[in-house]
């Protein structure tokens, strides 16, 4: 797709807030050996180099399972697994060293040469690695000795932060070292999650062969709380790889604010996820204290208290308790410690595939923390699930907020016929639409 001059400028401007927000933050990026063999991997390296140039502190963690499998087969060694984990004997360990070293060199070379004929041509990027992961043996489980298969014991955060502070990208392999000089084969999932936790990273980004977290019914989950994802995974309702889900859940549970899942097969998925409003994959968050859900009849009083100041100031149209009770199932709320701090309503007009977003409100003490964005994202998901392809909103005061979030100015003629008949010309609300 070729963008026009004006579209390119608009895209750059809309990404500016994200560029500013991500600068100086620490991201751990995890990708398996399958991603490295994919034709799109060179584009991923370009995007990683771009993130580095924008001031993002990057720790890359690579896997090497298919590369190890290739070397094990070439040497005619019997590959042994238990509980999905490779048993690493001395012969297999040599294959692990060979594969991990080869992958590491490949990634370093791609980042070092700046990729001729790419946007990052000529960029000088330092890649640092080393004995930054301390490991211990997995030991004997269910009577099986895993030999040189290990688990992360400690991440050298001081060493990693020294490299990051110098502007370097840190590259971690699925290998660890003990104080006695032993080498262990590690899961890259374990290395990535423990690195994100130890470094107190702002994000863990995991590449998958899926374009995010997919349910068994084929539906992409754009945003989900960690507890919900954990339950869906336990109920075997998730299609995305187990290693990816475990990494997302483990890191967020331990305090990583946000964990993302994107496709390694889609060109630009990483940048789209980080620098656009809609993203390209899935986002997992903890949200211990806040829950977003459909409203119930018990929420009527809380919603009335929330919207009353906005109704009195003329920002919202007044709603009676009776009307709110009748329409309560059209409302979505964010609840914090039992208190409703944000709400919105979604009214469907299925005859022309549109829906109205109405009564968007956030408590004055809880504004500025992206709660409006969370409500909008939930409304979008529900509208799309209902077969709606366009949202519209009527507003007199908050036009700028809707414009900032992708809505476009429209006329009254853009409204469904039944809504147009009820339009209050005296109130003279502005109309905005958003294509889904």
TrEMBL record:
Keywords: Acyltransferase, Amino-acid biosynthesis, Arginine biosynthesis, Cytoplasm, Transferase. Residues 290-429 form the N-acetyltransferase domain. It is found in: Cytoplasm. Its EC number is 2.3.1.1. The keyword Amino-acid biosynthesis applies. InterPro entries: AceGlu_kinase-like_sf, Acyl_CoA_acyltransferase, Asp/Glu/Uridylate_kinase, GNAT_dom, NAGS_kin, NH2A_AcTrfase. GO terms for cellular component: cytoplasm. GO terms for biological process: L-arginine biosynthetic process. Its main location: cytoplasm. It catalyses: L-glutamate + acetyl-CoA = N-acetyl-L-glutamate + CoA + H(+). Pathway: Amino-acid biosynthesis; L-arginine biosynthesis; N(2)-acetyl-L-ornithine from L-glutamate: step 1/4. CDD domains: AAK_NAGS-ABP (cd04237). GO terms for molecular function: L-glutamate N-acetyltransferase activity. Coiled coil: none annotated. PANTHER family: AMINO-ACID ACETYLTRANSFERASE (PTHR30602), AMINO-ACID ACETYLTRANSFERASE NAGS1, CHLOROPLASTIC-RELATED (PTHR30602:SF12). Belongs to the acetyltransferase family. ArgA subfamily. In bacteria which possess the bifunctional enzyme ornithine acetyltransferase/N-acetylglutamate synthase (ArgJ), ArgA fulfills an anaplerotic role. This is Amino-acid acetyltransferase. The gene is argA.
